[in-house]
């Protein structure tokens, strides 16, 4: 018996080289279910829904039952619950007024240990979800302050690959602080591109900030081409927004994200890579009807012609409000270390899941 446990310990001591965190913003259980029906006219047909290890994650914050993306992502990447609006700072932060403890993110742990790191999103790359990986701020709206931290890293040489949108709000916000992101990038021998196509193969650490419309699969491919060259491994976060204020847009996004995750899972070595999927919070979407063979979103176009986007979407099969909601969100995992994902758990546990997979200890 003792021999067996020693053997098991020895086997499990081998660590994951890479972790990829897939974040469907607002992709709760009801949205995942609806995306499968919307995409495949069948429940549980998403690729994700074939993953062997599943859990339900509580998303409450240090002060509220319902989380925003800032508190939600901070918990996932630092293991600490904070307040809504706060980017990877502790619960001693007063939003917009006073900094709290600067929390160390899983991306920073990776940087400190010489791994390569990346953050990809289809939204503003200085907004809450991506920002919580590479920056600390007492208010998520401080885009300039957040983005400039890329050039002043606390660990390693800072986040290596950054791809997202929000060029104008980020540059405007930096300008208000008297900062010039392009100058700062130059000082670090880096370039901020305004199109994915502009990135030369020779740039191993590209920063891409578009005005709008990020091609997430293309960005992910470019990032993986570069990150997979890292001898020590990598941490990559990929966010694809799944808010369903516009149900078609949100569900299409999640179906496409799932396809991308399938592609990536087919390319990486799952013996040395952990793939982790979750959402930062759930969303006010309910399937209240519908039948096989009929589009889930039947009646949506007619509804849009008669109503404003601010109203609760009411079509035969769905009711969709505009609020985040407080129930648990899905966590799914495959690959090295994925067996840790089971049962009901707090979102802060996901930080430990990633840290354990890498075989690191918390500071
Ligand atoms: Zn969110």
Overview of this structure, please?
The chain is of the alpha/beta class and 363 residues long. It has a domain at 17-113 and 125-156 and 234-358: Alkaline Phosphatase, subunit A. It is 33% helix and 21% strand. It contains twelve helices and 13 strands. It has helices at 2-13, 29-40, 69-78, 106-112, 128-134, 143-148, 167-176, 181-187, 216-227, 247-267, 300-306, 349-358, and strands at residues 18-25, 53-58, 116-124, 161-165, 192-193, 207-210, 234-241, 273-278, 282-287, 313-315, 318-325, 329-335, 343-346. Strands 5-6-4-3-7-1-8-12-2-13 form a ten-stranded mixed sheet, sandwiched between helices. A three-stranded antiparallel sheet has the order 9-11-10. The longest helix is centred in the last third of the chain and has 21 residues, at 247-267. The radius of gyration is 20 Å and the shape is globular. The mean pLDDT is 96. The structure holds zinc ion. Zinc ion (ZN) binds at residues 25-26, 69, 72, 280-281. The site of zinc ion has 6 residues, from helix 3.
